[in-house]
Amino acid sequence: MKEQGNRGEAAVNIGAEGSRGGIKVLKAGLLTTIQDLGRTGYRSSGITTGGAMDAYALRMANLLVGNEEGEAALEVTLIGPELEANTDLLIAVCGAYLEPTMDGEELPMWRPVFVPRGAVLRFGRAVSGCRAYIAAAGGFGVPRELGSRSTDVRAALGGLAGRRLAAGDVLPCGAGQGAAAPSRWAAAWATALARQGEAAAASAPEAAGRRLPWAAAPWFAPPGAYSGGDGEDGIVLRAMPGSEYGQFSVAAREALFRERYTVAPASDRMGCRLTGTPLARETRAELLSHGVTPGAVQVPPGGGPIILAADCQTTGGYPKIAHVAAVDMPLLAQAKPGDTIRFQPVTLAEAQRLDRRREQDIRYLAAAIRSRQP
Amino acid sequence: MGQLLFLRSGWPPSRISFTMGRKMRAGVRIMTVQVTPLGDRAIVLKQDDAAGAAGWKQMADLAWALEQQGEAWIIEIVPAYETVTVVYDSALLWREIEIGPEADSLLPYQLAERRLRLLIKNGRTAAERDVQGRRIDLPTYYGGEYGPDLEESAARAGMTASRFIEEHSKAEYTVAMIGFMPGFPYLSGLPEKLEQPRKPVPRAVVPAGSVGIAGKQTGVYPIATPGGWQIIGYTPIAMFNKERKDPVLLRAGDRIRFIPISGGEGSI
Prior knowledge:
The complex is a heterodimer. By secondary structure, chain A is α+β, with helices and mostly antiparallel strands. Chain A contains five helices and 21 strands. Helix content of chain A is about 20%, strand content about 25%. In chain A, helix 1 (about 55-65) packs parallel to helix 5. Chain B folds into two domains: about 1-120, Gyrase A, domain 2; about 135-265, Beta Barrel (Cyclophilin). Chain B contains five helices and 14 strands.
């Protein structure tokens, strides 16, 4: 084991303290879970896909710490957790702005950050958006269940024992903990940022004798188009007409794309419940249960729409008036209770073009990040 | 806002016709499915005739035929009563499928539709599938703390509780589809006189293993969840257990019986 004082002489060994785990949960926050890109291939067994609500933020956070884009990371909801590093780490925080601080100083988001052992990450209130993601180099070494590390709280699958995080949990992170070894890219950035922090500490005499400070990269990836919902139009979700669109009254079809809807407190990872102008259907005929997917806008008999989200049931029986374009699902992930949502019509063709362009953007960003050397 | 109808790519739906059943037998019939989009990442095949809830078998066969062909761009195949929902990955679709020079002018949806048409026509549509299903008995404690709604349900049906148990356990049920939650079986075959309304206020938690009735359906809750079904009993057989090789016990086509057991005998 190296001494604390002379780490500048060698590469920083992120994720080294194998036996102690990577990150200790001091406070759990409102709902903090481990998520990756979800569990595929089990919807015919009734098992939901799950995964990060804001897949864009999760993918960027992973890319920024040198991981595969679909590694497991922490999803933080509205009230963030308090986490202590048990080992040196390279992390990135992406998604909603929940006033993150590291050792009491503002933590810049959307970039790699070197975190020395003992540093404490805290969140404040949700200023903009609802969900933030914390990725760590090497990912989190919880076992995959049915092919995924995503936490499905209802089925008690994945994550840490299939449940939300609690104070006192220690999250396995780094090599030897069931997680992947941090990439060479991550190790190089961790070392460079640790030296940068060391140099800064040396020039500040009052910090003498303290441990190495944390340090963030001077560059960052583009944030997603997040909206706190406080603009005049709130969050605008592009949506296609749904399978039963034609069964709704003309008034309902017009209202859907004209009125503003409010996100209800009962919203969760299964679905976003909206209040506003009720949407009437012209037939009372019940539908037989059929497959549904995230983005479907169901309308129960009461008329208040529900936008299905990552943890949605695999089959349902309510009529679907619309379907939110996949490219806008990260915006829905950032909608919090009280936010305003407006639907904007989009064609299937346009939605698929937008989806393709987003995927291309992510590929370019991934290449740009990989080529950025310290 | 009438022009919104024009936004519906994939509308009116295209149709795919194919033969279903054992080709050597006289029972072969032509089936037609409507093809429509479900958002921008899924496609729905819906039975065109009025088979309704009885159509589950054709849909299970169609899903099976698609699964057998193992296409990487298809990430989920979800059969239900009268639909098969196919979730696709557009990027894999572009990458994996040999397409002509018109590829760039086609939407992933159109590519998926063309490819599915081919798969369905070429598929060994249920010809070699074991269509028998399995017979599975579910030992069930009726009434008492395990079935808090038994007495009330029996009263509504105008019979005694023991008669209600007899009727419910005498019938043979068929798993029409699995969905809603992990391993949840939609069972058909509930005798009409046992039909029950949903509870006006759903329970906050219905324990895993609870046997319930709602409308024309009877089923078993695989996991503890809020629920509005009338709970008449409990089976210790797990519908869902992630430790098993196949975590979900039942599949479409299985034939189910509830076998009454009494807690007093301590048989379980």
